[in-house]
Design a protein that fits this description.
Blueprint lengths: L3 H27 L5 E8 L3 H5 L1 H9 L2 E8 L13 E3 L3 H10 L7 E13 H9 L3 E3 L6 E4 H9 L30 H13 L4 H9 L9 H10 L7 E4 H10 L6 E7 L3 E8 L2 H12 L1 H9 L7 H10 L1 E2 L2 E2 L13 H15 L1
Parallel strand pairs: 1-2, 1-3, 6-8
Antiparallel strand pairs: 3-9, 4-7, 4-8, 4-9, 5-6, 10-11
Length: 351
């Protein structure tokens, strides 16, 4: 009988330990089964953000597991059915998704990113020689003159025509590699900017696209070629600033790779169109949760809280200069109706 008391205590202790371990194992076994699955169709430049394990963990902490499928922003209206939210790269594209779908809530701007041109410092020097680029005296970043570029392309100015060109002596027109305006928000915005710069010279705008030949459908594809093949792919590639910043900060560049901004440029507003109740909740989280906004800044996007973005932008330098905290001389993004009118006219001109 003397040994009965300690034995009972031992049994009780083991039972408590077993319950705790069982509870922990149960949680582990359930894993993502406790999370609400959410599907999204997103601009390709945002895929690295959604694939980031930190982003997945942050969303999971709020009870969501998000699967993000990449697509060109302008392809989304016809492909968004069945998704919880669409996340194109501009407000006009979001308006088009909304017009063709059945939104469950208001559009949400999550972060922004200006249009930019990925290039190489020797190419920048050539463009300066050709009077196509200039150094902004205020910000010390390089600007690509879109009006001068369109004028040069109208005259069929080739890389071999630029004085002192020993770095890229190819007999092709000086062009920015883009996607198709009908598929991708970045190319549609580039068309809008060049139309503004040329005073609605649609022939000149169309030639900037048709002279490229076959092009990719999403903004991530030409940027990946830029990273892998360098100048052998294209010396000038239209991207979002966030793509350059993300790679510069998280992967690293060689000293020759650098960034320019088109002049004029615009700041693209990456906007979620919620299509279900779960989409509404995730959109709100992405736009307001401090941890998720910090991770967006880590991937190069400009957040509403500039204090989150500024340290990241400071690490991604364009040549000898830090990237500008604000984008000067940016034109407003077009609305859906104005952009559609331009793109319809442009498609007709390009056909």
């Amino acid at each position: 009988m003397k040994r009965t008391g300690p034995l009972i205590v031992l049994v009780l202790v083991l039972a408590v330990i077993g319950a705790v371990v069982g509870n922990l194992l149960g949680r582990s076994a359930r894993g993502s089964g406790d999370l609400t699955p959410v599907s999204a169709i997103v601009g390709s430049e945002k895929k690295p953000f959604f694939d980031d394990p930190e982003v997945k963990r942050a969303l999971a902490s709020h009870g969501f597991a998000v699967r993000a499928d990449p697509a060109g922003s302008r392809q989304m209206p016809s492909r968004a059915a069945g998704y919880d939210f669409a996340f194109p790269s501009g407000k006009a594209a979001a308006e088009e998704v909304r017009a063709h779908g059945n939104p469950a809530g208001d559009d949400v701007v999550v972060f922004t990113s200006p249009l930019a041109v990925a290039t190489f410092q020797p190419i920048v020097d050539l463009l300066q020689n050709a009077q196509l680029a200039r150094l902004d005296p205020a910000t010390k970043v390089w600007r690509l003159d879109l009006k001068a570029l369109a004028d040069a392309n109208r005259r069929n100015v080739k890389w071999t025509d630029i004085p002192g060109n020993l770095i890229h002596p190819v007999g092709q027109n000086v062009l920015v590699a883009t996607t198709r305006p009908a598929d991708s928000n970045s190319a549609a915005m580039f068309a809008w900017l060049t139309d503004q710069a040329t005073g609605d010279d649609l022939g000149a705008v169309a030639k900037l696209f048709t002279d490229q030949g076959a092009v990719d459908t999403t903004s991530e594809e030409p940027f990946e070629s830029y990273l892998r093949r360098g100048m052998d792919s294209a010396p000038l590639v239209l991207i979002y600033e966030a793509q350059f910043v993300d790679h510069a900060v998280n992967e690293g560049f060689t000293a020759r790779q650098t960034l320019m901004y088109p002049s004029p440029t615009l700041v693209s507003e990456h906007t979620i169109v919620p299509l279900t109740a779960a989409g509404v909740q995730v959109a709100r989280l992405l736009a307001t949760d401090p941890g998720l906004q910090r991770l967006a800044a880590k991937h190069g996007f400009r957040t509403a809280d500039t204090a989150l973005s500024a340290p990241v932008l400071a690490k991604a330098r364009s040549g000898d200069a830090p990237l500008p905290g604000t984008i000067g001389a940016a034109v407003p993004s077009p609305g859906f109706t104005d952009l559609k009118t331009l793109l319809d006219r442009l498609e007709e001109k390009m056909s």
